[in-house]
Design brief:
heterodimer, A: alpha/beta, Rossmann fold, 6-stranded mixed beta sheet, 6 helices, disordered C terminus, B: 609 residues, alpha+beta, Guanine Nucleotide Dissociation Inhibitor, domain 2, Guanine Nucleotide Dissociation Inhibitor, domain 1, 4 domains, 8-stranded mixed beta sheet, 16 helices
Chain lengths: 208, 609
C-alpha cells in the first residue's frame, strides 16, 4: 500500500513561456532548468508533502505544450482538484489572456475546483503588471493569488503547500465530495468509477 | 491572423477523430515529428461560432457546445483555395480537400417542454430562483402529488433550466462502449494511456421480451439468481456459452454451419425460447441474418469481457466517448506532437504520386506521411462514398426506460420488428456518467440509415419513449428558432391539471422526452481509389459497431504501413520512471522502450550544450 492519506490532481494553465514547467520542476525537484524547451515525455510530476502530519500526494499536470496554439484537451481539466493559472509579470499579453483561460476553465473544470492565480517571474526587473493589478483580478474572479519566482525559488514551495493544505481541509470537511477522480480507493467497480490497468505491476500513478 | 507553424514534419495528421488520434499518438511515441490539425466544418474565418473542439464526428459536447456545433453546420461552407492561388513547383499537382465526406444531414432538434416564461407563475418562480440546480433544493413543498417520484424530479425542467445547466450535459455524437477485453481497453492499458481516462461499468444489459424490458443475466451469479429461467435452461445456457467460448468459430462443433446463420445453428440445439432470446438478442446482438461464425465470435467477445470490470462486459468512458481521442492526443503532445485546432487544410501537394506537402492558409508544410480524417479528403482520391451510413437519435428524458436500482447505465439491443427496419442500439446514461444532471437521463439510439434518422428510429422511440408534448398543437419543431411556443411537459400537467388519466393507467410510465435531436452521420466505409498516393492514409469516421475495435484496428494498420518495424504504442513511462537532468538516483528503465530513452538522452544532451 502506498503511504499517503490524500491524493490530489493539480493542473497548470496559462500562456506558453510563463514558466509553468519551471514552477513544477522547482517544486518537485528543486531545479530550475534554464533555457529548456518544451517538456518531452514528461506527463505529470508527483510529490508527496506533509501537512499537519498527514501525507498528501500531489499529481501535478503540465500542459504538454498544447497551450501553444490554444489546443488543450478538455479532458486535461477534468477532475482537477486545483488549477493554477499562471502569467508572467513581465509580459502584458500573458496577463491579457487570462479571461480566455478563465472561460475555458469555466467550461471544462469542475466548478468546485480550487483556483489560484500566479504571477511568475518576480525576479525580473522589467515588471509590467503591478502586484495589485494581479490581486484585483484574482479577487474579482474568486481566486487565490500569489506571486512567485521559479528561478529564485520564491513562494514556489508555499504555493503548492498552501494548495495541499487547502485541499486537505476541503476534503476533511467533505466539501470536495463531488470531485470525482483520484480518490484513494477507486478499486470497487459497482457504483464507482473504474480506472483500467493491470493491478499486478501497479505504479502509484495508476489507481486501479 | 494565423499562428505560424514549423514547416516540416514526419507525419501530419488532419482531424482529431479516434483513428487519427491513435495514429498521431503512435507516431509521436516512437519519436516522429507530428503535426496534428483540425478545423471546423463551417467557415473558419468569417462565421466562427463554436470553439475549437477535439474529436470531429466523435466529439462530445456540453449542451451549449452542441447548440453552437449545430449552428456552425448551418453556415454555408466556403470552398478552399483554388489551384491558381497555390505556388507549385514543376510536376507538382494540387488537390483541394473537401469536407463533403463528413456531412451531417437531417438535423432535427425539438423541445417538448416550455420556457420559464411560458409556465404558470407559481412554477416559473420556482425555476427562476434556482441557481445551482442541484435538484433537491428548497421551495418544493407546493406539490405533494409527485411524492412517489424521486426527490430531484420534483422541480420541473424548462428549456431555460436546461440551457442554464448546459455544463452538466455531455452529449455524444457517436457514443460507443468498450468491451472489457476489447481492442481499445487492451491498448489503453498496454500504452499506459488508461491513466488519462476514467470509466464506469455498464450496470445492466437489457432486452425486450414478452412485451417488457428485462435485465439479461450476464454473470454466473446473475444467471443463477435469475428467476425467469429454469434450472434446466440455466444448464442449457451455460453449456452453449461454454462451447462458444472454448471452441471458437473454427471448432468442428460449427462445421455444418459455415454458410448458415447463427439462428439456424441455435435452432438445432433445442433451446427454449427464453434461452434463445438471451443468446441472440442480448449476448450476440444478432439478427436473423447474422452468420453462424459472426454469432459465435460475438458471443465469445461478450463472454470474454465478462468478469473483468463490473457485472456486464462493457465500460463507458466518463464524460462521454469524445474523451478518448483526446487521451491519445495528450500522449502525442507529451511526446512532442504539435497541436493546432484552428487550422484548415486547404489542399494536398502531390509529386510523382506521393504526398509531398499540405497547404494550410499561407503555409506550405512538408511531410513524409499524411493521415487524413474522412472530413478532409480530396474528392479525387475517393472511389466510393460508402454505404454504412448512420442514423442517430439523442433524447433527454425524465426517467429511465426501466426504473430500478441499476438504472445508471443501460445497454439495449433492439432487433427490427419489420423487415425494412434496422436493429437499434440504445444506450441510456444516468447522471453518474456525467452525461446529464441529476434527475435526467440521456438516451442514445444508433442504427444503420435507411431513410433518415427520425424515420429509422421511430419504431423504437415509440416503443420506449413518450416523445410528444401533451398538446401537439402548441409545438413546432425547432431547427432555426429557439423562441417557439411549446406545451408544458407532462409533470406540469400532473401538477396543474387533473386530466392525466392516460398516464395513471400505465404501471410504469414511459420516460417523457424533454428534448430530442436527430441527425444522420456519413458512412464510415468510404473507399479510396487504387492510385491514391501510398503515403496518404484514410481514417474513417464513427462506424456502426458498438465498440471501438474498428478504429483501433484501422489505426494499427495505418501505423504498420507507415513504420513496419516499429512498436505500436509501447508503454509510456510513469513519471517516477523518468530520469531528469540532475537527479541522483537513476529510475528503473523503460520496458521495451529504447526510443523514449534516446529521446530523454537527446533532451539531456541539448540542455547540456
Amino acid at each position: 500500500m502506498e503511504d499517503y492519506k490524500f491524493l490530489f490532481k493539480v493542473v497548470l494553465v496559462g500562456n506558453a513561456g510563463v514558466g509553468k514547467t519551471c514552477l513544477v520542476r522547482r517544486f518537485t525537484q528543486g531545479l530550475f532548468p534554464p533555457g529548456q524547451g518544451a517538456t518531452i515525455g514528461v506527463d505529470f510530476m508527483i510529490k508527496t508533502v506533509e501537512v499537519e502530519n498527514e501525507k498528501v500526494k500531489l499529481f501535478i499536470w503540465d500542459t504538454a505544450g498544447q497551450e501553444r496554439f490554444r489546443s488543450i484537451t478538455q479532458s486535461y481539466y477534468r477532475s482537477a482538484h486545483a488549477l493554477i493559472l499562471v502569467y508572467d509579470i513581465s509580459c502584458q499579453p500573458t496577463f491579457d489572456c487570462l479571461p480566455d483561460w478563465l472561460r475555458e476553465i469555466e467550461e471544462y473544470a469542475s466548478n468546485k475546483v480550487l483556483r489560484i492565480l500566479v504571477g511568475n517571474k518576480i525576479d525580473r526587473e522589467d515588471r509590467e503588471i503591478p502586484t495589485h493589478v494581479g490581486e484585483d483580478f484574482a479577487q474579482r474572479h474568486g481566486m487565490y493569488f500569489l506571486e512567485t519566482s521559479a528561478k529564485e525559488a520564491e513562494n514556489v514551495e508555499r504555493l503548492f503547500m498552501e494548495i495541499a493544505a487547502e485541499l486537505m481541509e476541503d476534503k476533511i470537511q467533505a466539501r470536495s465530495k463531488e470531485l470525482p477522480r483520484y480518490e484513494t480507493n477507486t478499486t470497487s467497480i459497482n457504483g464507482k468509477t473504474t480506472s483500467i490497468g493491470d493491478t499486478s505491476n501497479c505504479g502509484c500513478s495508476r489507481l486501479s | 491572423m494565423e499562428d505560424y507553424l514549423p514547416n516540416e514534419y514526419d507525419v501530419v495528421v488532419v482531424g482529431t477523430g479516434m483513428t487519427e488520434s491513435i495514429v498521431a499518438a503512435a507516431a509521436s511515441r516512437i519519436g516522429k515529428k507530428v503535426l496534428h490539425l483540425d478545423s471546423f466544418q463551417g467557415d473558419v474565418c468569417k462565421h466562427k461560432i463554436s470553439d475549437e473542439y477535439y474529436g470531429g464526428l466523435w466529439a462530445t459536447f456540453n449542451f451549449d457546445g452542441l447548440q453552437k456545433w449545430i449552428e456552425d453546420l448551418k453556415v454555408s461552407k466556403t470552398s478552399a483555395k483554388d489551384v491558381s492561388e497555390v505556388d507549385l513547383e514543376l510536376e507538382e499537382k494540387f488537390l483541394k480537400t473537401s469536407n463533403e465526406y463528413s456531412t451531417v444531414e437531417n438535423i432535427e432538434e425539438t423541445w417538448y417542454i416550455s420556457n420559464d416564461a411560458d409556465l404558470p407563475v407559481v412554477s416559473s418562480k420556482d425555476t427562476q430562483t434556482d441557481s445551482t440546480g442541484d435538484g433537491s433544493g428548497s421551495g418544493d413543498e407546493k406539490s405533494d402529488d409527485d411524492k412517489v417520484e424521486k426527490k430531484e424530479n420534483v422541480k420541473q425542467w424548462s428549456i431555460d433550466r436546461i440551457r442554464k445547466e448546459y455544463r452538466k450535459f455531455n452529449i455524444d455524437l457517436a457514443p460507443k462502449l468498450l468491451f472489457a477485453r476489447g481492442e481499445l481497453v487492451e491498448l489503453l492499458i498496454s500504452s499506459n494511456i488508461a491513466r488519462y481516462a476514467e470509466f464506469r461499468a455498464v450496470s445492466r444489459v437489457a432486452t425486450f421480451m414478452d412485451g417488457k424490458l428485462t435485465q439479461v443475466p450476464c454473470s454466473r451469479a446473475d444467471v443463477f439468481a435469475n428467476k425467469t429461467v429454469s434450472v434446466v435452461e440455466k444448464r442449457m445456457l451455460m453449456q452453449l456459452l461454454t462451447s462458444c467460448m472454448e471452441q471458437g468459430a473454427d471448432s468442428p462443433e460449427f462445421d455444418g454451419f459455415r454458410d448458415k446463420t447463427f439462428l439456424e445453428y441455435l435452432n438445432t440445439k433445442n433451446l427454449t425460447p427464453i434461452v434463445q432470446h438471451y443468446v441472440v438478442q442480448a449476448i450476440a446482438m444478432a439478427t436473423e441474418k447474422t452468420s453462424c461464425r459472426d454469432g459465435v465470435n460475438r458471443t465469445k467477445h461478450f463472454l470474454n469481457s465478462l468478469g473483468r470490470y463490473g457485472n456486464t462486459p462493457f465500460l463507458w468512458p466518463m464524460y462521454g466517448s469524445g474523451e478518448l481521442p483526446q487521451c491519445f492526443c495528450r500522449l502525442c503532445a507529451v511526446f512532442g506532437g504539435v497541436y493546432c485546432l484552428k487550422r484548415q487544410l486547404d489542399g494536398v501537394v502531390i509529386y510523382k504520386n506521393k504526398c509531398k506537402a499540405i497547404i494550410s492558409g499561407k503555409q506550405r508544410i512538408s511531410l513524409e506521411h499524411l493521415v487524413l480524417g474522412q472530413g478532409h479528403l480530396p474528392p479525387e482520391v475517393v472511389v466510393s462514398e460508402g454505404e454504412q451510413r448512420i442514423s442517430r437519435g439523442i433524447f433527454i428524458t425524465d426517467r429511465s426506460i426501466m426504473q430500478g436500482e441499476k438504472e445508471n447505465l443501460t445497454l439495449l439491443y433492439y432487433p427490427p420488428e419489420q423487415p425494412d427496419q434496422e436493429p437499434v442500439t440504445l444506450i441510456e446514461l444516468g447522471p453518474s456518467t456525467n452525461a446529464c444532471p441529476q434527475g435526467l437521463f440521456m438516451v442514445h439510439m444508433t442504427c444503420k440509415r435507411t431513410t433518415n434518422a427520425k424515420e429509422d428510429l421511430a419504431y423504437v422511440v415509440n416503443k420506449f419513449l413518450k416523445a410528444e408534448p401533451l398538446d401537439p398543437l402548441a409545438i413546432r419543431s425547432s431547427i432555426h428558432s429557439h423562441t417557439q411556443t411549446v406545451s408544458p411537459d407532462k409533470r406540469h400537467i400532473q401538477e396543474g391539471d387533473q386530466d392525466n388519466r392516460e398516464e395513471s393507467t400505465e404501471e410504469s410510465p414511459k420516460p417523457q422526452v424533454l428534448w430530442s435531436l436527430y441527425l444522420n452521420l456519413p458512412a464510415s466505409d468510404i473507399k479510396l481509389n487504387e492510385s491514391t498516393p501510398s503515403n496518404l492514409h484514410l481514417c474513417s469516421g464513427p462506424d456502426l459497431e458498438l465498440d471501438f475495435d474498428f478504429a483501433v484496428n484501422q489505426a494499427k494498420s495505418i501505423f504498420e504501413s507507415m513504420y513496419p518495424d516499429k512498436d505500436f504504442l509501447p508503454r509510456a513511462p510513469d513519471p517516477e520512471e523518468i530520469v531528469l537532468e540532475g537527479e541522483e538516483a537513476p529510475g528503473p528503465k523503460f520496458e521495451g522502450d529504447t526510443e523514449a530513452e534516446e529521446k530523454q538522452d537527446v533532451e539531456k544532451a541539448e540542455k547540456e550544450d
